[in-house]
Design a protein that fits this description.
Length: about 400
């Protein structure tokens, strides 16, 4: 019987020979679903074979950035230039054989930078410790794809394909659609977008491959077959990872000004030179903007704010929001029970200070003072109404002030 790799090659060959039109969209959808299932089976660790050692790197700092690239493109030199960590640098390939961490100190924040071994073709299938490299990349908040500016752009396409094969989506957002399984009713398909690529027939063909027969599908945006398969894989063993990516073109000191200008104008791209120390500060600024870190300074009543150690909110940690609720929850979860309001100074409010609730979205370098509920506030919250006549959620009557006066008289 053919192995998994042979089956994947056969399906990819058949997809390459199939013309893309409305008549073949259903067949292509079924092929893509089978291909995704085979890749998932390939990536699952073997239960009988020996376990391969992975990269155990403790998460440190406020965010994590992983360096991905082919061997000998300058990842170790970039790590040393940005963090000061001495990583082995040489002119031959595969100098780095394990994960080497470093820390970028920028704007009172700590950004962990990971130098991973070089990826070779077939890393998604486990070649060259590719699974360990990709597994570490999945745990990062941003990926920096280090490329050799002196070579063609095929290296970027190959690396993107290797990451796409293991479920890492670069510079993409989660598709705007919902898939809810039901007990009965079959397939219910509702699309709010005219001329959408995803049709009911295509969804039915893909769901048959996944053996899902009763489901409600609602499409809110122009989504394709790959987007629908990504949504179905969310509950599987290899959920999709949507992460931002910077394409870092190194060795620009060996190019002309026109070639550097052409590379710099590409989306999500930045040009640098580790040897000549060119544009390293601009790279750090782009990392900061891409991570969307927001510093929150806390303040006690009657005292000045503490500007020495900010609390950092990120879109990847906590409840993945930039609200006051996330900030209070990061301090301590029990503080949410006694939370009354917060005074906010900064760019996110119209007047400083402004009284805000838990749903308020804070800005960078905002100052926050938390106000806890008093005993009377807790009693009002428990009774529901300010008069205290009835308990919240029931008809149990509580003796009020007027009734107490009548009883006393």
């Amino acid at each position: 019987m053919p192995g998994i790799l042979e089956k994947i090659a056969d399906i990819e060959k058949e997809m390459g020979h199939t013309q893309k039109n409305k008549g073949t969209s259903t067949h292509l959808g079924a092929l893509k679903a089978k291909l995704c299932a085979l890749r998932r089976e390939l990536l699952e660790p073997s239960k009988t074979g020996p376990k391969q050692a992975g990269f155990e790197v403790q998460r440190y700092g406020d965010s994590r950035v992983a360096l991905i690239g082919f061997p000998s493109v300058g990842k170790s030199s970039l790590l040393s230039a940005l963090t000061g960590v001495e990583s082995e640098v040489a002119a031959y390939e595969f100098t780095t054989l394990t994960c080497i961490p470093g820390v970028i100190h920028h704007n009172d924040c700590k950004i962990q930078l990971l130098d991973l071994p070089g990826i070779i073709m077939g890393a998604a299938q486990g070649k060259g410790r590719g699974r360990q490299v990709i597994a570490t990349a999945r745990s990062s908040d941003m990926i920096m794809m280090v490329l050799d500016a002196t070579k063609d752009d095929d290296q970027r396409k190959f690396l993107t394909k290797e990451l796409e094969d293991v479920g890492i989506r670069l510079n993409k957002e989660r598709p705007k659609m919902s898939v809810n399984r039901t007990k009965t009713g079959g397939l219910k398909f509702n699309c709010n977008v005219p001329n959408c690529e995803l049709t009911r027939e295509v969804c039915h063909s893909i769901l048959q491959t996944y053996k899902i027969y009763n489901v409600d599908v609602v499409v809110h945006d122009n989504c394709g077959i790959d987007d629908f398969i990504d949504i179905l894989e969310e509950t599987g063993s290899a959920p999709r990872k949507y992460v931002k990516c910077l394409y870092v073109y190194n060795k620009i000191d060996m190019l002309s000004i026109a070639q550097v200008d052409e590379l710099a104008r590409q989306p999500h791209a930045v040009v640098i030179s580790c040897y000549k120390k060119i544009n390293l500060d601009g790279l750090v600024d782009l990392i900061w903007d891409g991570l969307d870190l927001r510093r929150i300074y806390t303040k006690k009543k009657g005292m000045f704010p503490d500007f020495s150690d900010p609390m950092v909110l990120t879109p990847q940690r906590g409840d993945k929001t930039m609200t006051i609720a996330n900030a209070v929850g990061m301090l301590h979860r029990d503080m949410l029970l006694d939370f009354k309001c917060a005074y906010i100074w900064g760019e996110s409010v119209r007047s400083s200070p402004q009284i805000c609730g838990l749903k308020h979205i804070v800005g960078d370098e905002d100052v926050m003072q938390i106000i806890k509920m008093s005993v009377a506030d807790q009693a009002r919250k428990a009774h529901g109404k300010k008069t205290g006549q009835t308990l919240a959620g029931g008809n149990t009557k509580v003796i009020g002030v007027k009734e107490k006066k009548v009883l006393r008289s």
